[in-house]
Specification:
Layout lengths: L18 E6 L2 E6 L4 H7 L25 E2 L18 E3 L3 H15 L16 H8 L26 E3 L9 H10 L5 E3 L6 E3 L17 H5 L5 E3 H6 L4 E6 L8 E7 L2 E7 L12 H5 L14 E2 L7 E3 L2 H19 L4 E5 L5 H15 L4 E3 L2 H14 L17 E5 L3 H4 L1 H12 L3 E5 L8 E2 L2 E2 L2 E3 L6 H14 L5 H7 L2 H11 L6 H8 L3 H13 L3 E5 L1 H4 L4 H14 L9 E4 L6 H6 L6 E2 L3 E2 L3 H11 L11 H10 L4 E5 L3 H4 L3 H9 L3 E6 L11 E4 L8 E4 L4 E5 L11 H11 L9 H11 L8 H7 L2 E2 L43 E6 L24 E4 L1 H6 L7 E5 L4 E8 L7 E5 L27 E7 L5 H13 L2 E2 L9
Parallel strand pairs: 1-4, 13-37, 14-15, 14-25, 16-17, 16-21, 17-20, 21-22, 25-26, 26-27, 31-35, 32-34
Antiparallel strand pairs: 1-2, 3-4, 5-8, 6-7, 9-10, 10-11, 12-13, 12-27, 18-19, 23-24, 28-29, 29-30, 31-36, 32-35, 33-34, 33-36
Helix pairs in contact: 8-25, 9-25, 9-26, 10-19, 13-16, 13-17, 13-19, 16-17, 22-24
């Protein structure tokens, strides 16, 4: 497409089903009741001048530029605040209106810099456009006297500047921060002529304020007051491509605005059904890693991990990789080879990697990071409901009356959806938070949880069982729903179990540390408060009882009848952009695409006929099993696409030992990540900006990813996998990801009606899409559960084997922070480091005082498996006895202290419960020093004669 911006209708759309018809400038238009006159005019092709109005926020009526005349109505009302009424006759352009608007515009221009020709917003400025629209040719008032010209610019934010001299105080930025983002960081300070936009108290600038840099204010600003630095440096874009963000599982749709091959800015697409025109700091601004100097764009090989890297051609790298894989397979058998798919790559790329492993390597040794985060979701929801995914679309939350968040921190992990959730809470929905930390969802501006159940880490099942105890014993269960939709006998068994006194809140209080009355209040609210929706994250799944917790959540939804309609449901918040897709595409060692077991003869025959090979019927190895087998000498080679298991997987020392024991480690990524320190072949990957394909977000929404620029490395990731497959004589000949998607649809029932052409036409589809005429499934289990009857499962609380004691008296839990993403490979190479340059350890004031620690002190974090050092931050966000940190920075390598305990059903690691000790430290641990030295040595590169050095 060209650069033309999306239409701005001035005010939000009305959701009323009742229609009204009015006449605007002689044209008849029919709109939903409650639509503003301004929007009605825009919908019939009109364009009423406006400055304070934009369709992402409520009407305000302050700029006085959008005045209209209405037959039978006195005065000249503002069209943005005047509702359209049946039979109304509106005039948007008359001599009287022309004179009034010109006078208003003169006042604005008299206090505005006249540097249009050199302004970065020239040609993209609403003030400039509206001055032309009202016919302003001169300003009668002159430019002398008091004004706001020459005020100091705030350049503190790494992504945008705030120039108060260009501000017209329309309040759009303030209202966007309030209504869209829900942070309430901005305000109008002062009165009358002295009114100015402020980012907080007088001492605050945008960087130090509570602004989260979501970009809503920048997008709302009608002038160059809030302007991206890239717009200033590069200039106005000339074309745009709509694509999908490659960060979290929300899956925001963006308009990538380009000038030549340079990306100027990412603007949230208003028609994006996941984000509805909103964004966060990562998706909006943190895309600079694509051109970072650390990026590797040429293949490299080496015989030993002790050798420096040698830059080679693609032909040589692929040939060498294939020869090594074939050599090892011939010597040690197919099961000595395996691979790891990426939750950051597209569905098509993930599909090809597991296909290569199964059809080319000859084994089912395929795994993915999705298993180390949300595999309990797949197991638990498939067992209880019949599908391995969430039940609702994101829009559903706007119909929720009670929201229960357990083990998730959406303001940091899924900020765009959190903003929508907060909007619903401001409208009156109630909130229950189950989390050991006091997250921003517990209390932040204009929202507060009715109940915060600050449980002891590792006791999720006990808390959920106690909630169910209250609901069943107090007669709050939705018996009609249960009899109609669930297995009644299984329900009775489950109800008898949860009703036992040992499962009461009073008995379990000693285990969970949640006051019994607080828990009872939460249970009553969820059971009686109307539509109840449950949202959960890695604080549920990354436990030894992760699968049990997911099933306990499903039990809670079924016993209260909160399944199968809008505003309810069980909703996992997926961590990475394509975690859902990686699961869908058959990345697990026991499942083919579509969650069908590899041992099923009929399913296996379908793939064998299509691929022309014989598949192994035995499930393969998971990542920890591959590492164990490597140490034992039976697993020899691995192909890793887009994952950094050395930094992200538990017990870093064990991961390093496993990788070091392998004969051939192939890493395909953007940067020399930590895993690449143990690699023999490095294949440079491509960013989401450089490829076509699809992602599937947390709501099962399949969305197109469109190529914005040519790959800096020469190939998209799917093409690299195809090169390797063909070097292993598989004879693939895909020319576009649409052909791979067609194969996925052919072999996967839930994708049967999905095609590239249909996605281009419709924008997105939510699986299951049964055929080409099926519209997709925004809400699951509407008429009945996929498995037939909903299955209640008894989930007895079993304490984790990871115990605190005299040596390790504290419990460590881990998570993420807003400005960083996963292992930080992308966000650490952007301006986001301004907010989070290092991992910090949160510790309660009592625990800090007992250890003689002050805020900012270096501390040693020790567990049974390892130790590391980092700075402490003293906070009451965590309870006494609990500490918390992130894992975004390799200098910390927080996972060196996490253990190998895992979920009983899926081997999902227990990241959230590690017994630790905290002591003062004056420097890095021996392990950190040794690792840093090894890392520097491993990253040495010998450039080819024709290539520039990569470092």
């Amino acid at each position: 497409m060209g650069y033309e911006p999306q239409a701005d209708f001035g005010t939000p759309a009305s959701t009323s089903e009742k229609m009204v018809t009015l006449t605007i400038d002689g044209r008849s238009v029919t709109v939903p009741e409650g639509t503003s006159v301004m929007r009605a005019a825009a919908e019939c092709g009109g364009d009423i001048p406006k400055l304070c109005a934009t369709d992402s926020v409520k009407s305000f009526g302050s700029c006085r530029l959008c005045l209209v005349e209405v037959d039978g109505m006195r005065g000249t009302p503002a069209s943005c605040t005047t509702p359209a009424m049946d039979g109304m006759t509106v005039h948007t352009q008359t001599p009287r209106l022309q004179k009034l608007r010109k006078g208003v515009m003169e006042l604005y221009i008299s206090d505005h810099p006249l540097d249009c020709l050199t302004c970065s917003d020239n040609g993209d400025c609403e003030l400039q456009d509206n001055a032309a629209a009202v016919g302003l040719r001169d300003v009668r008032y002159g430019y002398t006297g008091d004004n706001h010209l020459g005020l100091q610019k705030d350049t503190s934010n790494p992504y945008f500047d705030f120039d108060p001299s260009k501000c017209i105080v329309c309040s759009r930025c303030v209202r966007a921060c309030d209504e869209v983002q829900g942070t309430f960081a901005l305000t109008i300070d002062g009165r009358g002529f002295g009114s100015m936009v402020s980012a907080g108290v007088a001492s605050d600038d945008f960087l130090s304020s509570e602004c989260v840099s979501c970009g809503a204010c920048v997008q709302a600003c009608p002038t160059a007051t809030l302007q991206e630095k890239a717009m200033v440096e590069i200039g106005k874009p000339e074309r745009a491509v709509v694509t999908t963000c490659a960060y979290c599982g929300v899956g925001c749709t963006f308009r990538a605005e380009m000038r030549g091959e340079q990306l100027v800015r990412m603007v949230p697409w208003k028609d994006g059904k996941a984000n509805r025109g909103h964004s966060c700091v990562k998706g909006r601004f943190a895309w600079g890693y694509a051109n970072h100097q650390d990026r590797i764009t040429q293949p490299m090989i080496r015989k030993s991990v002790d050798d420096p890297w040698q830059v080679v051609s693609w032909d040589k790298a692929i040939s060498y990789a294939a020869s090594e894989l074939k050599r090892i397979k011939a010597a040690h058998g197919a099961r000595a080879l395996g691979g790891i798919t990426s939750s950051r790559c597209t569905n098509e790329e993930t599909f090809l990697v597991q296909k290569l492993i199964r059809a080319g390597f000859g084994s089912n040794n395929t795994d993915t990071c999705a298993r180390v985060c949300h595999s309990p979701t797949g197991y638990g929801l498939k067992t209880t409901f019949g599908t391995s995914a969430g039940t609702q679309d994101f829009d559903s939350v706007m119909d929720s009356d009670v929201i229960l968040i357990i083990g998730a921190n959406p303001t940091d992990g899924h900020p765009v959806f959190a903003s929508r959730m907060k909007r619903r809470l401001r409208q009156g929905a109630k909130l229950i938070v189950i989390d050991p930390r006091r997250t921003d969802m517990v209390k932040s501006p204009h929202i507060a949880a009715q109940h915060h159940l600050a449980l002891q880490p590792g006791t999720n099942v006990a808390v959920l069982t106690a909630l169910a105890h209250v609901i069943v014993t107090e007669g709050l269960a939705d018996e009609a729903f249960i009899r109609e939709r669930c297995d009644w006998d299984e329900y009775q068994d489950w109800a008898a179990f949860v009703s036992q006194e040992r499962n009461s809140p009073e008995t379990l209080e000693a285990v969970t540390r949640v006051p019994a009355e607080e828990l009872r209040g939460a249970a009553r609210l969820f059971a009686t408060g109307g539509n109840g929706a449950i949202y959960y994250g890695l604080g549920v799944t990354e436990h030894s009882q992760g699968s049990s917790t997911v099933m306990a959540i499903a039990n809670l939804a079924m016993v209260t009848g909160n399944i199968g309609r809008r505003g309810v449901g069980v909703n996992p918040l997926r961590g990475q952009n394509n975690v859902q897709g990686a699961c869908d595409m058959g990345s697990f060692p026991h499942e083919l695409p579509g969650y069908r077991h590899i041992s099923d003869d009929e399913t296996r025959a379908l793939f064998e006929a299509d691929w022309g090979v014989t598949l192994d019927a035995e499930p393969g190895l998971r990542i920890p099993n591959m590492l164990d087998a490597a140490i034992d000498g039976t697993f020899r080679a691995i192909y890793i696409q887009g994952e950094d298991i050395l930094q992200s997987d538990p017990n870093t020392a064990h991961v390093a030992a496993g990788l070091k024991a392998m004969e051939c480690v192939i890493v395909q990524d953007l940067f020399l990540n930590e895993t690449a320190n143990y690699a023999h072949i490095f294949l440079p990957g491509s960013t989401f900006l450089e490829k076509n394909g699809t992602f599937t977000n947390a709501e099962r929404r399949i969305q197109p990813v469109r190529k914005v620029m040519e790959p800096a490395n020469g190939y998209a990731d799917w093409e690299i996998t195809q090169l390797l497959a063909n070097a292993m004589e598989l004879g693939w000949n895909y020319e576009h990801p649409s052909e791979i998607l067609a194969e996925i649809a052919r072999l996967t029932p839930s994708f049967a009606g999905v095609s590239w052409a249909r996605l281009e036409r419709e924008g997105s589809l939510q699986w299951p899409v049964k055929d080409e005429t099926h519209e997709g499934s925004p809400i699951m289990h509407v008429e009945g559960f996929v498995r037939g009857k909903g299955k209640f499962v008894v989930t007895d609380y079993v304490p984790t084997d990871e115990k605190t004691g005299p040596r390790f008296p504290l419990l460590l839990t881990t998570g993420r922070i807003l400005s960083q993403y996963n292992v930080g490979a992308q966000t650490r190479r952007t301006g986001n480091t301004a907010w989070h340059p290092e991992d910090l350890l949160e510790i309660h004031p009592t625990d800090a005082e007992n250890r003689g620690l002050k805020d900012g002190d270096w501390v040693k974090l020790s567990s049974r498996t390892g130790e590391t050092t980092l700075r402490a931050t003293i906070t009451e966000r965590v309870a006494p006895g609990v500490v918390y940190t992130t894992f975004h920075h390799p200098a910390t390598q927080a996972n060196v202290v996490t253990t190998e305990y895992s979920d009983w059903a899926t081997n999902c690691p227990e990241y959230k419960v590690t017994a630790v000790q905290i002591t003062p430290s004056n420097g890095p641990t021996d392990w950190q020093e040794d690792y840093n030295s090894w890392s520097e040595r491993s990253r040495r590169i010998v450039a080819s004669l024709t290539a520039e050095a990569a470092e």
